[in-house]
UniProtKB/TrEMBL annotation:
Keywords: DNA-binding, Transcription, Transcription regulation. It comes from the Bacteria. Residues 1-58 form the HTH lysR-type domain. Belongs to the LysR transcriptional regulatory family. Residues 285-306 are annotated as: Disordered. Pfam families: HTH_1, LysR_substrate. InterPro entries: LysR_HTH_N (IPR000847), LysR_subst-bd (IPR005119), WH-like_DNA-bd_sf (IPR036388), WH_DNA-bd_sf (IPR036390). This is LysR family transcriptional regulator. SUPFAM superfamilies: Periplasmic binding protein-like II, Winged helix' DNA-binding domain.
């Protein structure tokens, strides 16, 4: 249904005259007549009776009028829903217990007026494709390729470096250490069954292992976080890596230890990815809130992130 014709019908009904409706709509009276005639043909009924005093609604016109008004209100709501800043900013955070989710929560606390829609996609390729297609506004990812190699129109900026920590059970040889160096981890068994080959996090930990002679095991099925923590808690040999801001909860009797890694500190490089032509004002606010990571510390990150 032609909404311009519907709008013209409502205007004539309110004005009571085709001439007055034409002045209101800034079109010719002939254009008003053609639009109404086209709408009547589409509906198969007469909407007005032309009289010397003006245009009077027929019974069908009276019945159609409230529905026509609702159509125009629906059009206004539909247009308003996608105006920049009116809809929620849709952001991919990889996982709801990981650092990007913490960063978005911080943004929400600083800007509670901004609507947010938080989603979790699998890997960087899926995230870039979603940003490119416009199904999300932004994504937090570690980029294993330079930003200049991203698809046309896609931009990225490194926004957060997250220190990596060692997680052990109480019986592990390093459980009582206040800190460890990457070199000290050589010879210890680091178990990460969720290190899926081909993902950006697998690329990070593969490079970390190669740089410092660390053996990372991915043997066995990945049953999720809780079974991993159960195994680590009971093992004197196995440990795993977690991000400093990763929210990990475990039963009190597990007595797990989160041990900072320094000398240097491995940091996971989180970047924000977005479309350069995205007009959503909250996207600019999010980028300003995040800023840039502090690169003055004694840290290590893979060459592809530098």
């Amino acid at each position: 249904m032609d909404l311009d014709a519907v709008r013209t019908f409502v205007t004539v009904a309110d004005a009571g005259q085709f001439r007055e409706a034409a002045l209101t709509l800034s079109v010719t009276q002939q254009a008003v007549s053609k639009r109404v005639a086209a709408l009547e043909k589409h509906l198969g009924v007469r909407l007005f009776t032309r009289t010397a005093r003006g245009a009077l609604l027929t019974v069908d016109g009276q019945v159609f009028l409230p529905h026509a008004r609702e159509l125009l209100r629906a059009e206004e709501r539909a247009a308003a829903s996608v105006q920049p800043g009116r809809r929620a900013l849709r952001v991919d955070v990889i996982g709801r217990r990981l650092a990007p989710a913490d960063l978005v929560r911080g943004f929400h606390h600083a800007h509670p007026e901004v609507g947010l829609d938080v989603v979790t996609l699998f890997d960087a390729e899926a995230a870039v494709a979603a940003v490119r297609s416009g199904t999300i506004d932004a994504s937090f990812r570690a980029l294993t390729r330079p930003a200049r190699q991203l698809p046309d129109g896609i931009e990225a900026a490194r926004v957060h470096d997250e220190p990596v920590q060692l997680l052990t059970g109480p019986g592990h040889a390093l459980a009582s250490a206040r800190t460890v160096t990457p070199a000290q981890l050589a010879g210890h068994r680091i178990w990460m069954p969720g290190n899926v080959a081909g993902t950006e996090w697998s690329a990070f930990y593969d490079d970390l292992a190669a740089e410092f002679g660390i053996v990372i095991e991915v043997t066995g099925p990945d049953f999720g976080t809780e079974p991993l923590l159960d195994t680590i808690a009971d093992s004197p040999q196995l440990a795993t890596f977690v991000g400093e801001q990763t929210r990990v909860l475990w039963p009190a009797d597990h007595d797990l230890r989160r041990i900072p890694v320094h000398g240097p500190t491995p940091v996971y490089p989180h970047s924000l990815i977005w479309r350069g032509d995205n007009p959503h004002p909250a996207l600019s606010a999010l980028r300003a809130h995040l800023g840039s990571p502090d690169t003055d510390r004694d840290t290590w990150t893979p060459k592809w992130a530098r």
